[in-house]
Structure formats: structure tokens, C-alpha cells
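F.,

This is the one I mentioned.
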């Protein structure tokens, strides 16, 4: 392990302790936000991390890529590349989903009152404005699932505020159902519009055409500099208008598009709404 020199501090020591227990960590700067991408990684110039689920192909040694930089490797955490971040860090964060956890973030007293009435008791951590309720098990993340309530797990980060009180409870269906609005699924079923009657042959002729279209759609969402809601809806609309009527789209394709949108901050619910709206717009 790299010798600790001027990077030694309470945040670094807390991060090492968490990492040793299997919790992926990353430093936060002022404002409780991750350190921004370095110049080489800015705007995904490095190629990013596919769907923000894996550590490659980007090999940047700095704590880039937000929550995806979280690690349990002490050599990375104490490396010179992370030293400046720890010197400037205002807090420690962790990736709940990477630790097999889900955090129900309750921002105010009304949200806490609701949780006490609707959710099973579990480990509780006090925050500046409310409480974090921790459950054992991972799930997709989403903001504003109800007033004052966010869910942080996969592809998200939470500020480390201590171990809290009480035993961990298994993630209940009550929490999972928070991501469902008006019975709209968090991920849509594959499009099954029958292919046009032309001998049963797909007009796209080769799977490579569809693969290229999905890849370009992922890139369009990932590179959207602003107006993410509009970019996601427009991309879904374009994909469905081109590929939606031949029956070639599968659940794997739609999952890739949803993953790209969620990596830009869209919630599963917003993704499902955008997909449904695009289908309606096209009369599908």
C-alpha cells in the first residue's frame, strides 16, 4: 500500500475502514458532490464506462466518473492520484448498491413520519435534515419517489454519516414499489409490434444495423450537454420510429437505453414515462 503522507486525515481513514468492510467509497467535495471529471475524461472523451456499470475502458487513476469511481481497493484510495481529492474532500461517500444496500433518504419530518408508518424498521442514520434508512439488498435508484423521499442504491452514491442504529432489515417490496407510478413498469417490456408483411423479412436486413442504431442512441443520450429529459425522449422516439415496427427490439435493447438515461440522472420512472409517451406519439 502506498505510504500515507500528507493525505492522512479523518476522511481518508474513514474511507479505508469502510473499504476494508467491503463498502466501495469515494471522496466528496464541498456541496456533497463528487469530484468532476479530469480534463482527459471530460465529456466522456476517455470513452467512459459502458452504461456506468463496469470499471472500463476508462483507466483514469483519479476519482473520476462520480459514483462509478467508488472502490474498495486501498491502493487506489491511498494513491497519489487520489491524494489531492482527499486533501480537498469535504466528506466521504459510498456506493450503496455496490455494498448490497439500499438507502431510503428521508429529507424532512413528514417523510420520516410516513416511513415510520409505511416501512419496516431497519438501521437508521441521522442526517442534517432527516434520516437515512438502510436496507439489506440492492435495487435501481430514483429521486423524488414521493415528497421528501429519494432511493439510493445502484448507480448512485450516499454520504457516509456513520454506522447508525439498529439491525439491517431485508429490502422490502414496499420500498421496491416506490419506483412504480400508476403501474408503469420501471423498465418497459420489449416492443412486439408485428413485422410488416414482406415475406417475414426484417427491413433492416442485418442485426448490425439495429446494433449501430442502439449504440448511436446510447451515445446521443450520454453526450447530451443539457436538457436531458428532452434528449432521452427524443432518442427513444427516434429509436422506436426506426426500429419499433419490425419486431426486432428486445428487452436487452431497451435496457441499454434505460441504463444510458439513468447514468445521466434520469429515474427509472422518467425513463418509463418517456418510453410510453414515445409509443403513444407513434401510435404504437
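My design for it:
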Amino acid at each position: 500500500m502506498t505510504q500515507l503522507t500528507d493525505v492522512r486525515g479523518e476522511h481518508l481513514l474513514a474511507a479505508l475502514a469502510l473499504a476494508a468492510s467491503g463498502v466501495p467509497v469515494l471522496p466528496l467535495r464541498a456541496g456533497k458532490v463528487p469530484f468532476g471529471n479530469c480534463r482527459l475524461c471530460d465529456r466522456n472523451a476517455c470513452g467512459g464506462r459502458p452504461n456506468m456499470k463496469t470499471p472500463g475502458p476508462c483507466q483514469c487513476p483519479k476519482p473520476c466518473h462520480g459514483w462509478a469511481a467508488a472502490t474498495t481497493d486501498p491502493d487506489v484510495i491511498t494513491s497519489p492520484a487520489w491524494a489531492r481529492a482527499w486533501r480537498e474532500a469535504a466528506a466521504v461517500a459510498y456506493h450503496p448498491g455496490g455494498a448490497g444496500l439500499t438507502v431510503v433518504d428521508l429529507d424532512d419530518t413528514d417523510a420520516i413520519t410516513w416511513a415510520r408508518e409505511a416501512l419496516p424498521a431497519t438501521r437508521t442514520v441521522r442526517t442534517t435534515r432527516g434520516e437515512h434508512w438502510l436496507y439489506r439488498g440492492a435495487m435501481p435508484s430514483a429521486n423524488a419517489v414521493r415528497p421528501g423521499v429519494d432511493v439510493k442504491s445502484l448507480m448512485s452514491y450516499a454520504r457516509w454519516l456513520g454506522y447508525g442504529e439498529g439491525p439491517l432489515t431485508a429490502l422490502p417490496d414496499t420500498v421496491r414499489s416506490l419506483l412504480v407510478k400508476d403501474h408503469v413498469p420501471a423498465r418497459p417490456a420489449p416492443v412486439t409490434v408485428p413485422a410488416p408483411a414482406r415475406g417475414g423479412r426484417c427491413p433492416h436486413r442485418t442485426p448490425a444495423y439495429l446494433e449501430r442504431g442502439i449504440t448511436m442512441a446510447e451515445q446521443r443520450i450520454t453526450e447530451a450537454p443539457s436538457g436531458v429529459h428532452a434528449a432521452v425522449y427524443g432518442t427513444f422516439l427516434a429509436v422506436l420510429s426506426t426500429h419499433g415496427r419490425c419486431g426486432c427490439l428486445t428487452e436487452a435493447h431497451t435496457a441499454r437505453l434505460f441504463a444510458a438515461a439513468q447514468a445521466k440522472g434520469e429515474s427509472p420512472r422518467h425513463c418509463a414515462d418517456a418510453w410510453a409517451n414515445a409509443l403513444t406519439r407513434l401510435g404504437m
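Residues 21 and 72 are 8 Å apart (CA to CA).

Talk soon.
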